[in-house]
Specification:
This protein is an alpha/beta fold. The protein has a single domain (about 10-110, about 120-220), classed as 3-Layer(aba) Sandwich (Rossmann fold), CATH 3.40.50. It has 5 helices and 12 strands. The strands form 3 sheets. It has an 8-stranded mixed β-sheet, with helices on both faces. Strands 2-3 form a two-stranded antiparallel ribbon. Strands 7-8 form a two-stranded antiparallel ribbon. Helix 1 packs across helix 5 (about 200-220). The two termini are about 20 Å apart. The chain binds ligand PMT. Ligand PMT binds near residues 37 and 124.
């Protein structure tokens, strides 16, 4: 554990979905299972990193030698990440964070009414952008889940969120991306890219960790 590609480095990885409460019994969320983020945490620990997972609600066991902080909402996740960022060399945002939350959380269960109903939503904070634009600033890796123009949208997010690397994930295919055991991605950084073909999330995570270690080192961090 002390000789891997990430030996001596501290990693924080977000994983899973967030839940945005509507009332005491309901929430808005998404299909993220946490598998990709947990596979990254396992691979990072195997590569020698001191690894912390900031996890939304998932049904997965914590990988060996990984510390886990459980959160529910996007705002909880932001608070947990900001508390960890002072002791973090590399931050990886793999969570599927809700972009919006209900504008108000009702204290009592919402009663059924007429035929139509609507919800007012407000923007959640962008966690990875907050980390990438804060101080201290770790080497920051984001994911981009897209259903079309995957690489173009990912490049745009890399710049807009001020990231060091982004992992573009085409989530338009039912058997890849969200909740599946396999994935295929393109890792993109300012002056390069690398396509990682279809593989189990565990194998892909090992490749991504190796690539992140290399990019982190060549960005002058080692
Ligand atoms: O969990 P699994 O079932 O294994 O599925 C894996 C995955 C498909 C969820 C994962 O591989 C993935 O693509 N995660 C990112 C999902 C996502 O929300 O992408 P996005 O394009 O909406 O967000 C872009 C980046 O900003 C992501 O790094 C995201 O974590 C981050 N973000 C987004 C919104 C927000 N409010 N705060 C954020 O930090």
């Amino acid at each position: 554990f002390d000789s891997g590609a990430l030996a001596g480095l501290r990693l924080v990885i977000t994983a899973g979905p967030t839940r945005e409460a509507l009332d005491p019994v309901r929430y808005l969320s998404n299909h993220s299972s946490g598998k990709m983020g947990y596979a990254l945490a396992r691979a990072a620990a195997e590569a020698g990193a001191v690894t912390t997972l900031v996890s939304g609600p998932v049904h997965l066991d914590t990988p060996a030698h990984v510390r886990r902080v459980d959160v529910e909402s996007a705002r909880d996740m932001l608070d947990a990440c900001q508390a960890l960022v002072a002791d973090c060399d590399i931050f990886i945002a793999c969570a599927a964070v809700a972009d919006y939350r209900p504008a108000t959380v009702r204290e009592q269960k919402i009663k059924k009414g007429g035929e139509h109903s609507s919800l007012k939503l407000i923007r959640n904070p962008d966690i990875v952008a907050a980390i990438a634009n804060g101080t201290p600033r770790p080497f920051t890796v984001g994911f981009a889940a897209e259903t079309q123009d995957v690489v173009d949208y990912a490049r745009d997010k890399l710049q807009r969120k001020n990231l060091d690397l982004i992992v573009a994930n085409d989530v338009s295919k039912a058997d890849l991306g969200f909740a599946s055991d396999e994935n295929e991605v393109t890792a993109i950084w300012r002056d390069g890219a690398s396509q990682l073909p279809r593989a189990t999330k565990h194998n892909l995570a090992r490749e991504l960790v190796a690539l992140i270690a290399e990019r982190h080192a060549s960005a002058g961090n080692r």
